[in-house]
Amino acid sequence: MAHAHRAHPSHAPGISRRALVLGSIAVGIVVVVLVVTFALGSSSSSPAPATVNGAQRVDSLLQGIPQQGTALGSPSAPVTLVEFADLQCPYCGVWARDALPALVDRYVRTGKLRIVFVGMSFLGPDSVKALRAALAAGQHSRFWNVVELLYENQGTENGGWVTDSLLRGIGAAVPGLDAERMLAESGSPAVSRALAQADASARQAGINATPSFALASPGRRLHIVRPANLSAAGIEPQIEAALRR
Q: Is the dihedral of CA 134, 139, 144, 146 positive or negative?
């Protein structure tokens, strides 16, 4: 303003100089505080990826096997095994860790069997969050990698174990998968549609427990099968019978 009063330097020069010095120090402190606060805020908004178990085992198990959406194996395989599972279900975890590797080696890798995963999410919020991440990864042909790593690192049911940190760690452990993109796409309309389709498929098949299984072979419609146990040997007789048809 034109009529503002301005102190002249000849009026108490010592006080004016001290005020300038103290003002500069105060400004410097404020800047440092703002920088530190911003840095802390940035790091807390994106938690670091968690260390995950089983990355090497899962990569070795699935390497070289074609994936398309939630399907694992050759589209021309004569038999299809459909697995209905919840990513929080402890029995599904046992199946994934104990039975699946043998079935993949004996039947999927040899082109005899294709496995389709139908995700269910009735156990709680962690089920939904985990399945959404896996379905997002499925858009980039990495569905089964994420599913198997979730089972390898499965926590207590509804204990809040499916964190962004865990999902970032899993995404970082999967070759060729962008973890941040997976997280971003987990809330997409495409993933929501896939979630709804899986739920509808399970209801149509009359599935009310996990894990549940169905087999389809040439000339025969999909039919429910009940393994004798949760080992590979528990379902191999049904697979062999389907291959003979």
A: negative
The count of C-alpha atoms lying within 13 angstroms of the C-alpha of 191, restricted to the half-sphere facing its C-beta, is: 22
* Cβ count near 155 (within 10 Å): 14
- The Cα 72–Cα 65 span in angstroms is 7
Answer whether 0.85 is exceeded by the pTM.
no
Nearest to 162 by CA among 189, 194, 187, 125: 125
Residue-wise DSSP of 82-143: EEEEETT-HHHHHIIIIIHHHHIIIIITTTSEEEEEEEE--S-HHHHHHHHHHHHHHTTT-H
CA-CA distance, 151 to 157, in Å (whole number)?
Answer: 12
Gap between the Cα atoms of 34 and 207, Å rounded: 55
Q: What is the pLDDT of residues 68-95, one digit of tens each?
A: 999 999 999 999 999 999 999 999 999 9
> Cβ atoms within 10 A of the Cβ of 59, count?
15
